[in-house]
Amino acid sequence: MVDYRQGHTAAWIAYFVRRGHLAARPLAAGVEGAVYRLGEGLVAKVWSGRPPADLPLTRQVYADIARHRPPFATPEILDVEEHDGVLVTYERELAGSPLRPDSATEPAGRHLTPEETDALLTVLRGLAAIPGSESMRRLTVQGDDRPLWQGHTRFPDALAALVERAADRHGDLLAAHVPGLSGTVRWAVRSLAALRDTPVTVIHGDLVPPNVLVDDGGRPTAVLDFGFFTTAGDPAFEAAVTAAVWDMYGPHADEHVTALTRLFATELDHSPATLALYQAAYALTTYDLFATDGGDGHFRWCASLLNRGAAGR
């Protein structure tokens, strides 16, 4: 398994120590950057995967989310600086422990616990209660070259256009692993365009296990790491992607996708067909975000999702 998270370095720890944070140490790492615990309730995020010019918009999106007081904490940027062309944000440390390790590092067991599914439902309901804002609509999802909503007034249409752009990036590579890919792309674009208008709420877009923190009783305390596919959109998209990515690489991943998709359809009143469509769209738009040669785990996961008929066609 190739790990595409940003790495921690001794140079950054030394930098924070020079800045007066003598207790600096690595905390976590994601696609966009690495996080260091500085002590006294403060963390620093080194945004190696995002240009500094994006920060004001990110900061506004964080504020838009916090304004609606979800039942869990969300990131808050306290201070900003740039060091050697790399953006560094100082943020308050959010309490809690990851609901579960990432399946890339520690496979999940066969059975999903009630505490796990209850926590996911709490997070999905909390995010679905936060209206999509103009700032969220101006975000560009990873791998694309323009804001997702640019030129569109409906989320399904914006996502359909992204599917077409993503297929143009390295579609030949994906087609070598997904028979009939061109037909799948046409079906996805046509089906997305046919969806009815939906509520527009904040979309986190990357609710993998380490991004959900819980207390000792399993109740969500914080949601981390907005940015990978954060936008405004249909809350059914959030539910669909969460069901798909919660366990991507474990031996029971297929069972978990099926179980969570069914659970979210029932508990959150989403159409199973729409959830499956959104899962296919997610695979079609993120397959090449970590490598362009098809050699990474995420690419293989996207191809497998499409090949096993996650779209339910």
From TrEMBL:
Which Gene3D superfamilies does the entry mention?
Answer: 3.90.1200.10
Which is one Pfam family of this protein? Answer: APH
> What GO MF annotations does this protein's record show?
transferase activity
* InterPro entries reported for this sequence: AGP_Transferase, Aminoglycoside_PTrfase, Kinase-like_dom_sf
Keyword Lipid metabolism appears in the UniProt entry: no
Location of the Aminoglycoside phosphotransferase domain: 24-248
Q: Is the keyword Nuclease in the record?
A: no
Arranged from A to Z, the UniProt key words for this protein are:
Transferase
Listed PANTHER family: AMINOGLYCOSIDE PHOSPHOTRANSFERASE-RELATED-RELATED (PTHR21310)
Q: What is this protein called?
A: Aminoglycoside phosphotransferase family protein
What organism is recorded for this protein?
A: Streptomyces hainanensis
The beginning of the lineage is: Bacteria, Bacillati, Actinomycetota, Actinomycetes, Kitasatosporales
